[in-house]
Design a protein that fits this description.
Number of helices: 0
Shape: globular
Largest sheet: 7 strands, mixed
Order of helices and strands: EEEEEEEEEEE
Distance between the termini: 40 Å
Structural class: mainly beta
Number of strands: 11
Strand content: over 45%
Length: 123
């Protein structure tokens, strides 16, 4: 019933910007936590940024000051600036309805996932 669909991925040069979107449908109004995760070739999937229902966010150290997570009533966004080649990865959005004081960066905690979108940053 819950569907998450990412878009906005593509290729950009280092130092450029890109905005990812995650369109949510179904029973998404009950999702207390939403977040972005990424997986590069040969690496495990890792947390990028998370956002709770009250608008509180947290970020992985490697994106602080460069990425911004936000949402409206139907979409989750990730605004990325000063992109680096190291940011090249497949990006996923995720959501979960469970209450928690702080939305975790642990990917195993999230129950709903999108199909992902590719981000490629060239030097």
């Amino acid at each position: 019933q819950v569907q998450l669909v990412e878009s906005g991925g593509g290729s950009v040069q280092a130092g450029g910007s890109l905005r990812l979107s995650c369109a949510a449908s179904g029973y998404t109004g009950s999702m207390r936590c939403m977040g972005w995760f990424r997986q590069a070739p040969g690496k495990e999937r890792e947390g990028v940024a998370q956002l709770d229902r009250l608008g509180r966010s947290n970020y992985a150290d490697y994106v602080k000051g460069r990425f911004t997570i936000s949402k409206d009533n139907a979409n989750l966004y990730l605004q990325m600036h000063s992109l680096k080649p190291e940011d090249t990865a497949f990006y996923y959005c995720a959501a979960d309805p469970r209450y928690t004081q702080t939305c975790p960066q642990t990917l195993s905690w999230y129950g709903y996932w999108g199909q992902g979108t590719q981000v490629t940053v060239s030097s």
